[in-house]
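Feature request, filed as a ticket because there's no other form

It would be nice if the structure record came with a short human-readable summary line next to the tokens. Right now we just get the raw output. Example of a typical job, pasted below so the devs can see what we mean:
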Amino acid sequence: MSTSTGTSTRDVLIMVALRTARAAVAAMPAELIMLGRSGKKADAGRRRSLTLAIAWSAHTDRRLLAMARRTSAHVNMSLRSLERVRDSNSDAAALIDAAVAAVRRAVEVSRCYAPANVGAAPAAPRDDAAKAGLDRAASLSSAVALVADRMGVPREAIEARSGMAYRFPLPEVALARRTAIYLASCLHDIGPRPLARAARMSPEGVRKACAAIEDRRDDPGFDRFIDSLAEELVAA
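Raw output as currently delivered:
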């Protein structure tokens, strides 16, 4: 675990909360949480909603919204969904209470690894626009390097405007590029416009890339893969 800055420690704690909540919800029987709904998409949506609500209930941190790519409105809806499930029967309520307790324990255990950094004041804002631009480029570059290594796509292809220039399958290049953009946006809190400048693309392209990866996270395997990449970037 990286503890070189307060921000890194904060991000690690949030990721622990989300990961623990996600694991707890994944283990919940569908018959207890679906409330009559059915279908793979409905199940994935309900589990994602409960994951957000449980993580938020156990570890309320505004940064969690950015890392989960959710808004306050999403949290409110998720909390209402959580209460409906909790009120449906005592077994569901017990599972939810146990999940919230598990997230709190996991966060506290992780907090013990870097007590001096938790709650540290954030770094002072930099007025130097050029320096800020270099930082954004460095953040994106780190994400690209990791994604290239883990997904087996040449870094040059990810950074190029066209994957055809490197005779590499375009869908794989596009997925790798979107993954790098998503990670840089979530973990380094870079907005669409500055990230678009660093990636040499449009802000709308950045938004679409992040939305595409978020949609793919309905697949549990891909979701775990993104979590593992995020953990590596935070720990670097």
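Something like this underneath would help us a lot:
The two ends are 8 Å apart (CA to CA).
The longest helix spans residues 129-151.
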